[in-house]
Amino acid sequence: MTESEVPVFVGVAELEKWLQDAPEQVRLLEIRYDQKTGGTGGAGHLPGAVTVDLATELARSDADPVEGRRPLPDPADLQRSARRWGLRNDSTVVVYDTRSGLSAARAWWVLRWAGLQRVSILDGGLQAWTAAGHELDTEEPGIEPGDVELGSGGLPELDADAAAALAARGLLVDARDAQAYREGHIPGARNVPSQGVLGAAGTLADADEVRAHYGLAAADAAVPGLSCGGGVAGAFAVAALAHAGVTAPLYVGSFSAWSADPDRPVATGAEPGTGEEAP
């Protein structure tokens, strides 16, 4: 399986084929929002899947608040974790979660940023897997340590100044839900919730719908930067756009980093021009 054959989102049927054709190459990671409390974890996982904690393994907890709620992990720490998960340089990694796909998208973004090319998100997550009639496993898999080599800088990022510049041009998207946006956001950011590209079954809309959702229906439309609260919903938006053929940068620190800086202004209420009343 070559890099060009690995989509950003993979369906259950295609994943089944990958597991049949090259089971030794595919590594499954179940991304849990908070391993300590169970978070997105359930009563089982895809057979062979390793559980990964978003808060402690896909983010750093010792950073200054102005770096945000979930700053990127140190590449050396991430590499140690990834080797523990059994990842190799030639692995095809499929990440999933048990809810909306946002946590899985954070894992997709971090691994792609770290230089791993063949990473896909299971479209619809664990629910899609069980809806297709597949069983779950409750046993911890025996994983042989991997030898993957990871770095940084594999995906485009925004810092606070770059995010502010895009917001001033109306080109910064806040991917949180409307209520979180109204409670506080970067001035000038547009509210385009990530959940809007998910269907009733939790699977991603088609490419045309995704591009239209983010205001990119026209071929010459300017590509926005993505932000959210702490780099999770925004990562999903970046992944959805990538699946639709659009490369967009992510402000990893997002509003949690922005609002921790007393020199940064904060806007509240509905997006101007929406006709909504501020709370």
Uncertain runs are 35-41
Give the ordered list of helices and strands: EHEEHHEHEHHEHEHEHH
| CATH topology type of the largest domain | Oxidized Rhodanese, domain 1
In CATH, the homologous superfamily of the largest domain goes by the name Rhodanese-like domain
How many structural domains in the coordinates?
2
CATH class categorisation of the largest domain: Alpha Beta
Strands of the widest sheet, in order across it, are 1-5-4-2-3
The coarse silhouette is: globular
The helix/strand class is alpha/beta
**Sheet with the most strands?**
5 strands, parallel
What is the CA-based Rg, rounded?
A: 18 Å
What helical percentage do the residues reach? 25-40%
The rounded distance between the terminal residues' Cα atoms is: 51 Å
CATH architecture verdict of the largest domain: 3-Layer(aba) Sandwich
Tally of alpha and pi helices:
10
- What would the average pLDDT be, to the nearest integer? 91
Looking at this protein, list some descriptive labels.
single chain; 2 domains; Oxidized Rhodanese, domain 1; 10 helices; repeat; Thiosulfate_sulfurtransferase; 279 residues; five-stranded parallel sheet; Rhodanese-like_dom; three-stranded parallel sheet; 11% strand; alpha/beta; Rhodanese-like_dom_sf
